[in-house]
Amino acid sequence: MPKSEMQRIADGRPPTGAFSISFVNPSGVLALPTAEGAYTVRTFIEGCVLHVDAPDDGLIAEMQSGREPIPWKNAEQREAALRQIREERPDLPDDIRSRLADWIKTSGWYES
């Protein structure tokens, strides 16, 4: 194996040409693998409906529990989710939509 490939693996990156499969639950939470294990992030794909009311790790459950928010995968996904809550979710009561928007704004994200 070339030295550069060995270094990629030592750095926790997959070998060239390798891929991994990640399962994302309905509320957008997934574990991204690293060399040390995995880290949990919330992800969002624009054009999909954000499932905010999943009982265990949906945004509403997270907000109402008072626990630390799960960080977003990156700032762009956090902003896209925030836009959807504000502009595309008339199904949510106004007070819930407003509180969710505030909750999302205070949550962190990982750098891309």
Q: Features of this protein?
A:
single chain, 112 residues, two-stranded antiparallel ribbon
Question: Could you explain the architecture of this structure?
Answer:
By secondary structure, this protein is an alpha+beta fold. It has one domain. The protein contains 4 helices and 2 strands. It has a two-stranded antiparallel sheet with strand order 1-2. The longest helix is centred in the C-terminal third of the chain and has 13 residues, at 75-87. The two termini are 28 Å apart. The model has no long low-confidence stretch (mean pLDDT 84).
Outline:
This protein has 112 residues and is an alpha+beta fold. The chain has four helices and two strands; from the N terminus they run αββααα.
Helix content: 25-40%
Overall number of domains: 1
The total count of helices amounts to 4
Across the major sheet, the strand order is 1-2
Structural topology:
Elements: H1 3-10, E1 29-34, E2 37-42, H2 59-65, H3 75-87, H4 94-106
Antiparallel strand pairs: 1-2
Helix pairs in contact: 3-4
